[in-house]
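Protocol step 6 of 9: fold each sequence in the batch and record its structure tokens directly after the sequence line. For illustration, a two-sequence batch is reproduced in full.

Sequence one:
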Amino acid sequence: MSAGLAQKLRLLQGEAGKAPPLSHPAAARGEALGIHPSPSTRPRPEVPENIRRLLGLRARASSRPITPLRPPDRYLPGDEIAPGLRYYESRHEAPPLPPSVDVSFAKDFDTVAPGQLLCFDTETTGLAGGTGTRAFMIGCADRVDGQLRIRQLMTTTMAAERAMLETFARWLEPRTVLVSYNGRSYDAPLLKTRYRLARLPCPITPLAHLDLLHPVRRRYRGLWENCRLATVERQLLKVLREDDLPGSEAPRAWRDYLGGGPATDLRRVLAHNHTDVRSLMQLLARLAGDTPTIPPCPNPSRT
């Protein structure tokens, strides 16, 4: 259609009351050539900022590039010895123990060799127990070549539990004496249940088990505010934990990591478990070295 014919058509439409909206001359020339701009390419009027605020309009998005979020810190110490199972080992100065350790402070015990002792502690997915609760971490402390060896197993997937149970079973011998703190009532029954559910032979049931909670209660109940391991560390071992994650937070830290979250708190759980098993060996040495005739130390806060 020629430009003259298009102009005449507009005049006729105007007389009929159907005139098209006025457009830019350049746009009119484009339309005359059969080129029609799409709504998205048509220029939009600029709204002043004060008018935008009065109308409650959102500010225009910044043209600055968006900085991508940093990936979460997923680092965990140790080595992966099986899919989803990590192993961490460290060596420390061992508390002094005689060649034959007198453990007569505990009932049903007489003497044991230092090489028989295996202190252990678990970190679990909950404190209620039952078949729905599982251990995701097992820590152990024993004496090797005159040093205190601490070994820790930690699962980072649900499927790695069987590998952890099989590895822990290889650490136990028929002569092993398990040492725990409230392990008779919690840790040992929990692990026995997990071995049974995994259809594995339980290596814990036939072993001797020395639970240090009961002799501590007999000796210090009424002198301390409670007999928790943290209280024993403070009052008896003079151990002060720094940046310690409470055991009640361990399930949450593990679930967060499994959900793709950072490993920061899970590393703190590893440190918490490390201190637990190290304190167990120190507590055993202290209880074995104290003679029954010496009265227990009073609570310093009450003197």
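Sequence two, same batch, same settings:
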Amino acid sequence: MTEQDAVRTRAFTAVVNPISGGGHSFEHWQPVADRLLAAGAKVRAIPTRDREHAISVARQAAERGDVVVAVGGDGMVRDVADGVVRGGGVMGMVPAGRGNDLAWRLGLPGDPAALARLLLEGEPRAFDVLDVNGAIAPGNVYIGIDSLATQIINANRRLPALLVYRLAPVRAILRWRAAGYTLEVDGERREVRAHTVVVANSGAYGHGLRIVPPAEPDDGRLDVMVVGDGPRRQVVSFMEQAKKGTHTGRPEVTLLTGTSVTVDADRPVPVCADGDEVATLPARITLLPGALKLLA
């Protein structure tokens, strides 16, 4: 058997979020699937019912030896990654959501032919993931004004992606007041009053923003960004600078690194990861280095 024949024996299970991208996720998947089938690969697609179903399907497919393809947005990628990590398998992605920040961060092609070629011929790369209270997240965990914005985004799925991703932070700012956080980074404890705490692996979210520019998803560390308390107008100017990546030099921004972080606050604050609320405080976030094998 030639090397080319070997890669064509790959079997693929696509785990598809049917509501991603305004309900058009299968339209993103089908041209990729057609090319995989034409190359002689075994292909099947399973629409998901909920988060638990997505994780279960992904884990079973990974344990079977299939390449498990997440078809959807960052939330679908997170859930499939959860199952693939637990199943010890290999994952691929077909971006079909509103944000697609991890796909953008990793430079995945948007063309179906290029995506199919990557799935057929690509070599898996080892990426780090975050464990947040037992849930796996390949991107980022955020707790504060941006997690409140995530709640607003998810409550307005009918609005165009770019519009809702820009309006949600404004609405969140109007509703938000700074919280008192207790952080423990690799055993070092500190108390801060802040607008948000981000524990980053990829560093990218918010529809194409590099919120934590130093973060690299395969460097064996997590990056923590704390945005300290200040006037609301400070948050607005922060968001403007975040579009250019110049916000990390602001005096209220603190950057830390480590491999394990525990976050708590003086009131309930949503704990979000890769587009969804996934946990409650206190949140323990641990880096799992090289745990996800991904075709990227």
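Proceed to step 7 once all outputs are recorded. Observation for sequence two: Residues 147 and 272 are 6 Å apart (CA to CA).
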